[in-house]
Amino acid sequence: MATAALEKPKKAKGTGKSQTQRKPVPKRATAKKSALRAGTPSRPKTVQMNVRIDEATKEAGDAAFARIGLTPSQAVRMVWEFAAQHVNDPEALRSLLDKLNKNQENGSASSEQTRRVEALHEGWALIDNFRKEHDLICTVPEDDDERMAYYEQLREEALQERLEERGLL
Q1: Which domain holds residue 137?
Q2: Domain count of the chain?
Q3: ∠65-88-103 over CA atoms, to 5°?
Q4: What is d(CA 70, CA 78) in angstroms, rounded to the nearest whole number?
Q5: Per-residue pLDDT tens over the stretch 110-123
Q6: Does 65 share its domain with 102?
Q7: Are 107 and 101 in contact (CB under 8 A)?
């Protein structure tokens, strides 16, 4: 029987070390400890939540939050942070959820529309009061549709004047 001789690892030229030896790679735990020692605060542990929701509701909600500069995750975090801050005050949390539930029952689109119409009427009242205080004579239609057309025309005329002043028309 022939026996094979085991070969020794070859040494790299000029180093005196074998080619199979490598420098040890630092472990992650060591890197984390080094970062903690350096004064870098560690991030709190996070968890993932999965929620089932109607697709149309999600899309409408995502659009609404995007309009105010929030992501869905930020909105959920805000609700959970509110709950955590009021853990000893369940009435505050119940009040918030009741308000949300009432808006849902009333139909958020119709309540938003109502809020906008009310704001429009408040604006018209401010303009009317200003005209009366300064004795400005101007006939403004009483009908909402005619009044909207009137103010739209004024807005267009003001825009036209600005463009002409700037030499853009």
Answers
A1: 121-165
A2: 2
A3: 35
A4: 10
A5: 677 788 888 888 88
A6: yes
A7: no
